[in-house]
Design a protein that fits this description.
- By secondary structure, the chain is α/β, with parallel strands linked by helices.
- The protein has three domains: 13-76, no CATH class; 80-384, Aldolase class I (TIM Barrel), CATH 3.20.20; 403-464, no CATH class.
- The protein contains 20 helices and nine strands.
- It has helices at 9-12, 15-27, 32-43, 50-58, 62-80, 119-132, 150-162, 182-190, 205-211, 220-224, 226-232, 249-267, 296-309, 323-332, 369-378, 388-391, 396-404, 408-426, 430-443, 450-464; strands at 83-93, 136-141, 172-176, 196-197, 238-241, 273-275, 314-317, 336-338, 382-384.
- Strands 1, 2, 3, 4, 5, 6, 7, 8 and 9 form a nine-stranded parallel β-sheet that branches.
- The protein is globular and about 60 Å long.
- The termini are far apart.
- The model has no long low-confidence stretch (mean pLDDT 96).
- The chain binds iron/sulfur cluster (2 copies).
- One iron/sulfur cluster binds next to helix 16 and helix 18.
Length: 472
C-alpha cells in the first residue's frame, strides 16, 4: 500500500503507485484541460505532486513543453536569481565491495588501479583545490568497511577542514558515501558535514537488485531508507539523485518526487538538493549496454520539471555533461555545478598517467575553473562560492523557511558577490578578473534591501584590503 508517511521503502516508493501514476499520465497526456490546470497549480510555486508532474512529463505537445520551460526559467530566476554555486568532487578511495554493474569500481574489476588517499595526499589535493579557488567539496568513497571505515571518512573530513593555505579554505564538505547506520550519520553530523548525498541509482526495486547483484548495496530497502536514518542522525540537508539511463526515466522521475514527498511528510523538510547524473562511459563500462539512455531533449525536460515540481530544492549537475548541455539546463533550473573536476582518486595535485586511470567516469567538460567562471559570467551568471547557510546554522527547515520567505535574495545575492570578489582577488586570470569586477558593479544594484547593499559594499572594500570570509 502506498503511504508517503511510512518508513518502509516499498510503501513510500510504492511500485503499484508508480505504475498507476504512469498509466494515469499516459491516459491524460493529451488532456489539455487537465494539463493547463496543472500548469496553473505549478504557478502557485508550492510544488507539484508526483502524479501531476508525471502528466506534464508525458505530454509531448511542443507548445506546452515550451510553457513548462518558460515557467522553469521563471522559477529559476525568482528563487535562485542568476547565481550558480560552484563545487568540486574529491574522490578519497575507490576500494569497493559492491557489484554495481554501471560503475567501474565494482569489486570484480581487477584491472582498475585501487587507490586510497593518505592524509598527506589529501592535504596536497585540498591545497590544489584551494589554489583553484574552490570552497565547497563533495567527498566520494566506495563502500568498503575494511579500507574505508567511517573512522577514515571522519579523519579525512577533519583533515580537509583543518587546511589553511594562503587565503584558501574549504568551508563546506558535502559527503557522498554508502548508506550507513544512524550512529554513523550522527558522527558525520558531528564532524560538520554539509549535505549528505546518496544517489538512489534507480527506484525500480527489481532492476535495482539486478544492477546491484552483490555486496551490501544489494539491499534495496536499506539503501532507500538511508535518508530517513541520516535525518534521524541529525543531518537535515540530504541530497537525492538517480542515475538516468538505468531504468525508464518516467519511472525514476515519479520515484524521485515520491521520495521528496516522503521526506517532507515524515521530517517536515524535503531534499536540499537533487542531482541529475546520466550514465557515462568509464573503464569497463559501456553506456550503450544500458537500454534506457535519454536524449538531451528529455534530459532538459526532466530538469525543467524538477525545477517546477520542487522549487526550493537545489539542482546539481556535474562535469558528466558537456558545456552545451550545461548551458541549456542551467537556464532551466540547475543551481549548482562542479568545475575542473577530477573523477579519479587523486589527480588534482598531479594528473594521473592515462594508463593508470582510476576515474569513475569520463568527464565531458574538461575546462579549468577559471574558464568555467569566465563562461558563466559571459552568460551573465554570477559564479558563487558561498557556503554561508550551513555555517550560519541555516539548514533543514530553517533554510527552507528562509527560502520560502524570499529573504534568501538578500543573503544569496550579496554572498555570491562577496565570494566571487574573493575568487577574483585570489585566483582569477586578468581577463576573468576584469569581467568579474564589472559584473559585481552591475549586480550590486540587484540586492533588494538597501542596508544589505550598503554592508555588501563595505565588505567588498574590506576584501580588497585583504580581509576574507564575510557572509550574510
Ligand atoms: S557506485 Fe559506489 S557502491 Fe557501486 S561500485 Fe561504484 S563506488 Fe561502489
Ligand atoms: S546564502 Fe545559503 S542558500 Fe544562498 S548560496 Fe549561500 S549557502 Fe546557498
Amino acid at each position: 500500500m502506498y503511504n508517503p508517511k511510512s518508513l518502509k521503502a516499498e510503501e513510500f516508493i510504492n511500485h503499484e503507485e508508480i505504475l498507476d501514476t504512469l498509466a494515469y499520465a499516459e491516459s491524460n497526456k493529451d488532456n489539455y484541460e487537465l494539463i493547463h490546470s496543472i500548469i496553473e497549480k505549478a504557478k502557485e510555486r508550492k510544488g507539484l505532486s508526483h502524479r501531476d508532474a508525471s502528466v506534464l512529463l508525458a505530454c509531448d505537445n511542443e507548445e506546452i513543453i515550451q510553457e513548462m520551460y518558460d515557467l522553469a526559467e521563471q522559477f529559476k530566476k525568482d528563487f535562485y536569481g542568476n547565481r550558480i554555486v560552484m563545487f568540486a568532487p574529491l574522490y578519497l578511495s575507490n576500494y569497493c565491495v559492491n557489484g554495481c554493474v554501471y560503475c567501474p569500481y565494482h569489486m570484480k574489476n581487477k584491472h582498475i588501479p585501487r587507490k586510497k588517499l593518505t592524509q598527506e595526499e589529501i592535504k596536497r589535493e585540498v591545497i590544489a583545490l584551494q589554489d583553484m579557488g574552490h570552497k565547497r567539496l563533495a567527498i566520494e568513497a566506495g563502500e568498503d568497511p575494511v579500507n574505508n571505515p567511517i573512522e577514515y571518512i571522519l579523519e579525512c573530513i577533519n583533515t580537509i577542514y583543518s587546511i589553511q593555505h594562503k587565503n584558501g579554505a574549504i568551508r563546506r564538505v558535502n559527503v557522498n558515501i554508502a548508506a550507513t547506520t544512524v550512529e554513523n550519520y550522527r558522527k558525520l553530523k558531528d564532524a560538520g558535514i554539509g549535505t549528505y548525498i546518496l544517489f538512489q541509482e534507480t527506484y525500480h526495486k527489481e532492476s535495482y537488485e539486478k544492477l546491484h547483484p552483490t555486496g551490501p548495496k544489494h539491499n534495496y530497502a536499506y539503501h532507500t531508507e538511508a535518508m530517513d536514518r541520516a535525518m534521524d542522525g541529525g543531518i537535515d540537508d540530504v541530497g537525492l539523485g538517480v542515475l538516468f539511463g538505468l531504468e525508464l526515466y518516467k519511472y525514476e522521475f515519479a520515484g524521485l518526487l515520491m521520495h521528496a514527498e516522503h521526506l517532507e511528510a515524515v521530517h517536515g523538510v524535503g531534499p536540499h538538493t537533487i542531482s541529475v547524473p546520466r550514465i557515462k562511459r568509464a573503464d569497463d563500462i559501456d553506456p550503450s549496454t544500458f537500454d534506457n539512455g535519454i536524449s538531451d531533449e528529455i534530459f532538459a525536460k526532466l530538469c525543467a520539471l524538477i525545477r517546477i515540481s520542487v522549487p526550493y530544492t537545489g539542482m546539481i549537475i556535474s562535469t558528466r555533461e558537456s558545456k552545451s548541455v550545461r548551458e541549456k539546463v542551467i537556464r532551466l533550473g540547475v543551481s549548482q555545478i562542479s568545475g575542473a573536476s577530477r573523477t579519479s582518486v587523486g589527480g588534482y595535485a598531479e594528473a594521473e598517467p592515462e594508463d593508470e586511470s582510476s576515474a569513475q567516469f569520463d568527464v565531458s567538460d574538461n575546462r579549468t575553473l577559471d574558464e568555467v567562471v569566465h563562461w558563466l559570467m559571459d552568460m551573465k551568471y554570477i559564479p558563487s562560492f558561498c557556503t554561508a547557510c550551513y555555517r550560519e546554522g541555516r539548514t533543514g527547515d530553517r533554510f527552507m523557511a528562509l527560502c520560502k520567505s524570499k529573504q534568501i535574495q538578500n543573503c544569496c545575492h550579496p554572498n555570491a558577490l562577496l565570494t566571487l570578489k574573493e575568487y577574483l582577488m585570489d585566483y582569477a586570470s586578468p581577463d576573468t578578473k576584469k569581467l568579474g569586477e564589472e559584473l559585481i558593479e552591475r549586480e550590486l544594484e540587484n540586492i533588494p534591501n538597501p542596508k544589505a547593499r550598503e554592508v555588501c559594499i563595505e565588505n567588498l572594500k574590506k576584501i580588497e584590503e585583504g580581509q576574507r570570509d564575510f557572509r550574510f
